[in-house]
Here is the input.
Amino acid sequence: MTEIKSFQDLVEMMARLRSETGCPWDREQTFATLGPMLIEEAYEVIDAAESGDWNELRDELGDLLFQIVFYGRIAAEEGRFTIQDSIARVHEKMTRRHPHVFGEQKVSSTAEVLSNWEAIKAAERKSAAATDSVESLLDGVSHKLPGLLEAYQLTTKAARVGFDWREPSEVLAKLDEEISELREEMGREAKDQTAIAGEVGDLLFVLVNLARKLNVEPEVALKSANRKFRKRFHYIERSLAAAGRACAEATLEEMDALWNEAKTAT
Here is the structure.
């Protein structure tokens, strides 16, 4: 039977890995080198959860936790903070932001919870501000997020204070408008690539809003579409390989026909 390990066991393992008698590779890592791995592990957690592979999700959560402990260890070595400090801070923050659970405040809906959450965060930002400049509701959304996720979080926050379309049909109308504007830019004799890129960005932004209004996580939806594309394209490759051919040797019409077969098969 596998010995049950605690969070502290993982923290101590990381300390040993980073020690002079530990692992040379682990000792060489920095916040910069860990960044891509942390993002990759987070996406693998999402993928496992979406696919319903619970053994995989169990393992991927462990891998993600390992990366978090890795970050905490480097911070501790640099004398900045410990992982225990991070735990204490998030515990205090979540207690403060849930007065309806840990305090006397009463709420009757999720909308009230979210409204109170934003009000509490705004008060925190105001308290921490070093200047008298106007604090924005959007300040809490990192500029470093992937574009799709940033757009989703920006508009989610704006929607919480009423800046939003009322119905998904209104977003569809806006989508039609953005497609028309993109067509117009593409149809110009002297094409302005910057303007075209701007219209494509607007189109993607509206699509994110449509997903949000339909209660669909756009990143999750796109990852699902990516998996579907991989599966169907691999069907094309396997089918051609069975006939002793490669994709480069097939016509677009042949590959389209196989794509349609893949859609039926999957």
